[in-house]
């Protein structure tokens, strides 16, 4: 974790945190703020320790075992559990890729009026070429500068009238309406913050980092550095997520825009600080996070498949050195492109992707909780009691929400 400045070294936790604020996250938190105002703001605070504990557990498994999450599942659990886990993450990731590509094209259309499908194809090809021919860690550092446009959501809070008393009470006193609409938004919120693809990506990148540095010996300092890395990433993503929700509540909801249907409506939340350049700022945020996240989504699927079937794997290898690994990446992005032929509205597509993540996560969280407690696997480095409780709470919460949805009017 040494380095001169924030951008000198992107740890796996930092990159995971940046990828968590993807187009799906931007759209989901914007929609929640527009639809409910501050009423569901408590969810952001509630999810922070849960997201941290889950990512910390995934990183711990990788650091101690030297394997990614799918590799650990393959070693310690029955094969059906492995296949179900990989299938769930592959489906969720592919839908997320499709939604992110759609949103990037829609945001680009705000500035350059090109057909939606043309934009989707262009971004898919750009991402494929970048991921295949340029090591991810190199262009990720550049893309992080584009993602700084998300700070605009924080800046808006200083120029619009935010009823901080109401916002604060929404955090202190949790409440939601007993309706399918509110519970769907909570599922989407949880799914876009505690996302299945990040479980596999976090562990895979910890293994990559372990290999690159040659540091295979586990120590307290190593675990402490990992916790700091994961903590920084999760805090950053939740602060930005909360800012997006508050911004949408204070701008869109306050002006009776309660259902975001288009990218243009979503961009209006930035108008108080960017004025006529709101669409451009929104474009930078969506495209920057999309270019950063789609490779993570495709890469997470590919790492999981490679560990399942014993393929050569690494984003640092050339395509000819890991053909099956890169074939899965290409297939994930191309299938995501194909899903856009259905003509689903880009912003609604993003919300659907978040809900699918929320429905997929409980099974995978239960697997992570079980593995984190495995003394035979982790020995003295198994997850601490607080981690087990938080991961368990995340599992219960994300399992309960779909059941509540079924019961709600």
UniProtKB/TrEMBL annotation:
User: Which GO molecular function, any one, fits this protein according to its record?
Assistant: cadmium ion transmembrane transporter activity
Q: List locations, semicolon-separated.
A: Membrane
As for membrane topology, the entry says: Multi-pass membrane protein
- Entry's transmembrane regions: 81-99, 105-130, 142-163, 183-201, 230-252, 280-303, 324-341, 347-369, 389-408
Which cellular component, as a GO term, is one annotated location? plasma membrane
**What are the record keywords, sorted?**
Membrane, Transmembrane, Transmembrane helix, Transport
- Protein's UniProt name: Unannotated protein
> Could you provide one GO biological process annotation from this protein's UniProt record?
iron ion transmembrane transport
Q: What is its main location?
A: membrane
């Amino acid at each position: 974790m040494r380095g001169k400045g924030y951008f000198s070294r992107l740890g796996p936790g930092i990159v995971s945190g940046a990828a968590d604020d993807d187009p799906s996250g931007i759209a989901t938190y914007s929609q929640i703020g527009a639809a409910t105002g501050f009423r569901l703001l408590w969810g952001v605070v509630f999810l922070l320790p849960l997201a941290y504990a889950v990512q910390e557990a995934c990183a711990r498994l990788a650091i101690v075992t030297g394997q990614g999450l799918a590799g650990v599942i393959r070693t310690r659990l029955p094969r059906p559990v492995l296949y179900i886990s990989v299938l769930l993450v592959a489906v969720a990731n592919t839908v997320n890729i499709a939604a992110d590509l759609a949103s990037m094209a829609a945001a680009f259309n705000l500035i350059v009026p090109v057909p939606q499908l043309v934009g989707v194809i262009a971004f898919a090809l750009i991402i494929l070429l970048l991921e295949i021919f340029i090591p991810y860690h190199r262009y990720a550092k550049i893309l992080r500068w584009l993602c700084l446009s998300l700070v605009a959501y924080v800046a808006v809070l200083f120029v619009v009238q935010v009823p901080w008393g109401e916002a604060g009470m929404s955090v202190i006193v949790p409440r939601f309406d007993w309706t399918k609409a509110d519970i769907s938004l909570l599922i989407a919120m949880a799914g876009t913050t505690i996302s299945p693809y990040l479980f596999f990506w976090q562990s895979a990148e910890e293994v990559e980092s372990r290999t690159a540095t040659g540091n295979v010996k586990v120590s307290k300092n190593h675990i402490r550095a990992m916790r700091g890395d994961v903590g920084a990433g999760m805090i950053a993503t939740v602060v930005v997520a909360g800012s997006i929700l508050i911004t949408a509540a204070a701008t869109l909801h306050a002006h009776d825009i309660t259902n975001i249907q288009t990218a243009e409506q979503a961009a209006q939340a930035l108008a108080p600080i960017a004025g006529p350049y709101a669409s451009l700022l929104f474009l930078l945020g969506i495209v920057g996070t999309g270019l950063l996240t789609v490779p993570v989504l495709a890469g997470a699927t590919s790492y999981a498949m490679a560990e399942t079937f014993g393929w050569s794997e690494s984003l640092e290898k050339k395509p000819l050195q890991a053909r099956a690994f890169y074939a899965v990446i290409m297939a994930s992005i191309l299938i995501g492109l194909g899903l856009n032929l259905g003509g689903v509205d880009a912003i609604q597509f993003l919300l659907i992707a978040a809900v699918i993540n929320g429905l997929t996560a409980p099974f995978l969280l239960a697997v992570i909780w079980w593995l984190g407690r495995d003394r035979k696997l982790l020995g003295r480095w198994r997850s601490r009691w607080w981690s087990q409780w938080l991961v368990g709470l995340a599992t219960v919460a994300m399992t309960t929400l779909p059941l509540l949805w079924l019961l709600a009017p």
